[in-house]
Amino acid sequence: MESFIHFLSQLNPLWIYVAIASIAFIENIFPPFPSDVIVVAAGSMAGLGRVDFFTALVLATAGSTAGFLTMYKIGDWFGVKILEQGKIKFIPIDKVHLVEGWFKKHGYLIVVVNRFLAGTRAVVSFFAGLSELSLWKSLVLSATSALAWNFLLLYLGRELGENWRSISSYLESYGIGMSIALGLALVFYFAYKRFRKKTAADSAS
């Protein structure tokens, strides 16, 4: 990764901008992808005068939003078929409707924090489409989330300068922690729904 970023920093700024937008897009389609580290490195380049801070911010946010839109439409058009074929291994088919119900109830809040959920961004946008959340509302919230997150990463990179590498281990730990937290949230949600269903059945008998 470091050799790639070094190569990237030697390119014409136009190609650096293209790379920032493209990598931000790809990360939303094929996670996990180290786009956050690259955005931090872009912040360092901005601090050193290689690229413009706000241009990098706009392009990283545009790439992230385009990636969100792509996965949203995949979920909207093909989500049921993909899940029936068992393509998403960590969500059993019998739990899909529970997750879908969760998104219909809390989906917009999840979209708002989507960009801060490293490693799960593609899943969030996929289920936003599957759950038929409002496309335009989801896009606005996703873009706002991406804007805030990318600004933070670029700012940290600019402030760290050539020491930007020091943040990569923290981002990795953060990503793992957030993935675990989301997984536990799903486990507790399923357990809670099962408990309520059992309680209702016991009361009826």
List the helices and strands and how they pair.
Elements: H1 2-9, H2 13-27, H3 35-47, H4 53-84, H5 96-112, H6 121-130, H7 135-160, H8 168-204
Helix pairs in contact: 2-3, 2-4, 3-7, 4-6, 4-7, 5-6
**Secondary structural class:** mainly alpha
Q: How many strands, what sense, and barrel or not for the largest sheet?
A: none
Quote the distance from N terminus to C terminus.
Answer: 60 Å
Outline type: elongated
* Strand segment tally: 0
Radius of gyration, CA atoms, in whole angstroms: 19 Å
Would you tell me the overall average pLDDT? 78
If you had to describe this structure to a student in words, what would you say it looks like?
The protein has 8 helices and no strands. By secondary structure, it is mostly helical. The longest helix has 37 residues, at 168-204. It is elongated and about 70 Å long. α2 (13-27) packs antiparallel against α3. It has one domain (2-204).
Summarize the structure.
With 205 residues, this protein is mostly helical. It is built from 8 helices and no strands. It has one domain.
Primary descriptors:
single chain; about 200 residues; mainly alpha; about 75% helix; elongated
